[in-house]
Amino acid sequence: MADLDFYRRAIGVNTVDELCEAICASLLKTNRTYEFWVDWDKANRNSDEHKYQLGLLATLKGSDTPRKDLEKLLRRYPEVAAAFPRLLAEHENQLTVLTAKNPPFKYIDLDFSTRDRSSADIRQLATFAEKTGLLNMLSSVAQPQDYLLGVEVGLDSNARKNRSGVVLESLVGDAIDALVRVNKGVVCLKQEAFRRAAETFDVRCPPSMTGRRFDFALLHRGVPTNIEVNFYGGTGSKPSEIVNSYSDRARILKKHGWRFVWVTDGAGWLKMRTPLRNGVEAIDYVLNYQMLHDGLLTRIMLRR
Fold first, then answer.
1. What's the topology of domain 4-35+159-301?
2. Residue 280 Cα distances to 18, 68, 107, 150, 225, angstroms
3. Can you tell me the mean pLDDT for 25-30?
4. Distance between CA atoms of 58 and 61, rounded to whole angstroms?
5. Is residue 273 classed as helix, strand or coil in its secondary structure?
6. Do the beta carbons of residue 157 and residue 101 sit within 8 Å?
7. pLDDT reported for residue 234
8. For the segment 155-177, what is each residue's pLDDT rounded down to a tens digit?
9. What are the extents of the domains in the chain?
10. Is residue 20 within 8 Å of residue 280, measured between CB atoms?
11. What is the pTM of this model?
């Protein structure tokens, strides 16, 4: 249940509804820092991983007989096939292709990592490159590595949904690091299992939580605190699931002497006030990033 006595002293609110309004009034409009859009280090690293194979494949540019020339490349340099999946935005090195769309269905299994290839294997790889459009691209693009970099940027954009939460987690982590530096008696663990925290802090751990992982766990004056972080820029069903999960976690941890703090933010909460209110009502401490920066987490940690 919301620790309204704490919030009354900290920010002058007296009810759950007032606390929800205070949270909604200072939500981050976005957490998209400059680093949000593309992880260029990862994109360049993944692109460079195949630069040797791509240099060989660049010789297909302008070929009058691209399939024949590709087969020659595969015979002489079988390792060039390792770049095929990545050029098609695929992470796996082994692919199964449905070759007959009507019964009886037929499939082929392709391994792009092996270097020991028969003539039949080479023909099969060349057919794959031809029918997927990869061969046409390779015969018309002068710099396949530039093309692959574009593919990697596109693949990295799929990580933005996860990166959104990671960005806020990083911001909260920086604030927690500052808290630990100023308050020498505070010990912090990040991204560990509760079992590890119990051993390090020498505290009790709920049996049902031993294998579960946390974002942050802090210890001060013998009292452990679990801090979980997430960000919602839009609406959906997951916030309600998170609220139910964290409400249960807060109740279980409290029985075993832990505090639980939920740091959540994002303009999505403006359209999901019911699940937010449910969480605020059920969990002792719910903060947004502004509240954390205003010192509320420090005040929670230093409470006896």
1. Trna Endonuclease; Chain: A, domain 1 (3.40.1350)
2. 11, 66, 53, 43, 17
3. 94
4. 6
5. helix
6. no
7. 77
8. 887 666 666 668 889 889 999 99
9. 4-35+159-301, 40-157
10. yes
11. 0.76
Tokens describing residue 169 = 């987690």
Kindly report the number of other CB atoms within 10 A of residue 143's CB atom. Answer: 12
Span 40-55, pLDDT tens digits? 999 999 999 999 999 9
Hunting for tokens 């292709």 — which residue is that? Answer: 97
Task: Output the six-digit token pair for 243.
Answer: 């609220």
**Alpha-carbon 152 to chain mean position:** 16
Sorted by sequence, the CB contacts under 8 Å of residue 138 that are 6+ apart come out as: 57, 58, 60, 61, 66, 70, 87, 129, 144
Q: How far apart are CA 125 and CA 208, in angstroms?
A: 50
- Residue 188 to residue 218: CA distance in whole angstroms: 4
On whether the CB atoms of residues 93 and 111 are closer than 8 A, the answer is: yes
The token pair that represents 55 in the structure block: 């240099």
Please tell me whether residue 217 adopts helix, strand or coil conformation.
strand
* Residue partners of 126: CB distance under 8 A and separation at least 6: 67, 70, 71, 74, 135
For 279, the 3-state DSSP assignment is: helix
Show Cβ contacts of residue 250 under 8 Å, excluding neighbours closer than 6 positions: 260, 262, 282, 283, 284
